[in-house]
Amino acid sequence: MVSIADVGHPSRYTLDEYVTGISSGVTPQPESERSGGLSDERAARVGERLRELQSARQIAESESRDYPVT
Amino acid sequence: MNLQDWSHDHPADAVDLARPGALSSLLDRYGGSQPDVLASVLAHAYACGAQSAVLEYRYIDADYRNEHSRFYSTTFRRYPSVAHRLHFFAEKMPAALASQDEPARFNNLGYLGYTVLRPLPGAPVGRTILVPQAGTQPHVTCLAWDEVNLLGERLKVEGAPFISQDAQMSVCAHATLWMITYYHYLAFGGPRLLPGDITAAVPDDIGRGIPSIGLTLYQISVASSRLGYPALVYGLDPPPPGESPFRLACRYLNSRIPVIVGGAEHAFVLIGYERLKAGRPDERIRFIRHDDQAGIYISVDNYLLDDYAPWEYLVIPLPQKVYMSGEDAEVIGEAYIRQALDDNAARIGTDLRDRLDGKHRELSFRSTVVRSNEFKAGLEARQVPSTLAAVYRRMQMSRWIWVVELVDRELRRRNQPCVLGEAIIDATDQLRDMHVLSWRIPGLVGQWNPDTDTLSHGDLDFIPPLRSVSRASG
Predict the structure, then answer these.
(1) What's this model's pTM, rounded to 2 decimal places?
(2) Among B108, B126, B236, B346, which one is most buried in terms of CB atoms within 10 A?
(3) Minimum CA–CA partner of B336 in chain A
(4) Does B245 touch chain A if contact means CB atoms closer than 8 Å?
């Protein structure tokens, strides 16, 4: 049995000897090889669309303030 | 109401609902001056096949006791501090129930749910959960399990919570907030909030708090935030550009999140929907709602012709950690899936891209916000192949994620697995630096690591269309 007194410092053991890696299942790759981000043109279109939707929500928030329900 | 009639010298009565006159006798005793909602509840129980009921007396209901404490104990007119509770069963009560030598047993009698009966002649229907009718059940997306204890026996029911307003301490706005917070309590482990908590959360700078004559949408929105459910507000006249009331509401209903509608100066709660004539030019949506002034599981076949038309606003109380709206997530998810299809066209072909942009609209996007742990735990039940499930289960994700799915509309119409790809988005992410945590298209899955701002990819074998994460069928 290992007692706490047996554990020296610095340790004689390294954790690496006792672990097994669990892979994420995917491989990091340079972006140049296979893209995963948005093109500049597409990102711009998306940004514009998001601003349009956000503006509509702001208007709705403002206009609904006095809408009564009973 | 005669106060003496509210107390009984025995704990409960069994009611044979199959006997003529049973419905009328319940309405006569409990309907008070506003019997319509109770009539709706009883009619629904009958429609679900209720054969018997148990009236539980001297029931201390947390919600009514709270209303009594905050308001009804302060009036000159006296009100009992205890409620009654009516439990419905699909089977007849066994003769052994009358025995004084045996504990009462109700298991295996087909428990259908309960309604709390308040001693308020103007508002008798309190906390209520009944199962939906069998034909409606697949389309009610906002269902949660509740458990009761009846004479020592535990009974469970899955339904959408309901309560009616009393027009004193609560009006329709309070009732809708109560339904939503009690639902979130049961479905997602939110706090158990009582009517007094809801009343206290309403800003009182406009009008009198109690008795309430009504709230504004602003007050609903602020109260919802104070209760822990920040709300999004959508105008429907007109809806946001490129959106429709269906699309806006269904994203949240797909996610099992109820939606408040404001129309004709009334508020009610949408709890599900059904596609009618799916795939045909005259396809439309039938919504299912709880209306605190009318009753439970009410179908709205055409919202344009509804009693509360025109619907003017949608208010969506969301869990705290859902920062991103459904339509924003869908814009981002769609963009990433399209980008992945474009970038990998040489490898996987252009079939999906062509179908996506074809004039027949064969493909569409469907967005659902789910808890990531439930998403991961549900992969095998959705028969996601192990190679993809392995990747998703090992991914580190935010507590809530938006899943934007690329859907084959014809397969969806036939209620078959229909998801061809998806993007997973952190629901706490910001719009000025758009990313998806992951995307999948045929043959390929990609990931973005927010800690290192790096991309990773994995190859996939052929994956057939998958079942959607959405709660909605079809």
Answers:
(1) 0.93
(2) B126
(3) A38
(4) no
